[in-house]
Amino acid sequence: MTILRPPRSDELPLLSELCLRSKASWGYDAAFMAACRAELMLCPEELRTTHLQLAEETAGPLGLAQVAIEEGRADLLKLFVEPARQKGGIGRLLMAWALATARALGASEMVIEADPGAVGFYRRFGASQAGWAPSGSIPGRRLPRLVLDLAQQKENPRFQP
Predict the structure, then answer these.
(1) pLDDT at 153
(2) Nearest-5° Cα angle at 59, 85 to 57
(3) Among the residues of 26-157, which ranges form H helices?
(4) Sheet strands side by side (includes 3-5)
(5) Regarding beta strands 142-149 and 3-5, do their DSSP bridges make them parallel or antiparallel, or are they unpaired?
(6) Angstrom distance (rounded) from CA 43 to CA 137
(7) Who's near 2: CB < 8 A, 6+ residues apart?
(8) In this structure, are residues 112 and 72 in contact, taking their beta carbons and an 8 Å threshold?
(9) Residue 63 backbone phi and psi in degrees, to 5
(10) Cα distances (angstroms) measured from residue 136 to each of 23, 35, 37, 60, 143
(11) What's the distance, CA 115 to chain centroid?
């Protein structure tokens, strides 16, 4: 059975490595992954400044989601799933947590700077393209910037996990 819970600070290195494995599952080479490493690492300060949740079973962590809230807007900073468990519902569970958390904290929209390979996943929740964002890791690379209207998403059963 999968449970969701906040991570402990001693788990952050293990969860950072999970983020890297998950990102690498899109087929990126070693140089690309090295450039992304710092951006994908979790630090203890993030436990105080953002909302983090990990999905786990008895075997250990399966995924994580991270949300930051500012002035009525939620930013989905991370959503990663262990590669062997992708497409098994863990991502949907974490996204449902992220959406519920954003709504509970007063956000009216969620912004997602998505890996191009993950755009379809977020579109299934009702996110739409709203331009491009510069990569925080790769100079000159642009990421799809998606926006999800939380009120529309909640009211439309088509956009449920």
Answers:
(1) 64
(2) 70
(3) 30-40, 45-49, 90-104, 119-123, 150-155
(4) 3-5, 51-57, 60-70, 73-81, 109-113, 142-149, 128-134
(5) unpaired
(6) 17
(7) 55, 56, 57, 62, 89, 90, 93
(8) no
(9) 180, 175
(10) 14, 9, 11, 29, 9
(11) 10
CA-to-CA distance for 11 and 26, rounded, in angstroms? 24
Report d(CA 111, CA 88) in Å as an integer: 24
d(CA 143, CA 88): 25
Q: What is the pLDDT of residue 59?
A: 85
Amino acid at site 77? L
CA distance 56 to 143: 29
Cβ distance 19 to 40 under 8 Å? yes
pLDDT < 70 stretches in the chain: 153-161
Best CA proximity match to 35, nearest among 134, 140, 138, 143 = 138
Contacts of 25 by beta carbon, 8 Å cutoff, 6+ apart: 83, 86
**Is 65 strand, coil or helix?**
strand
Report the pLDDT value the prediction gives residue 53, as an integer from 0 to 100.
98
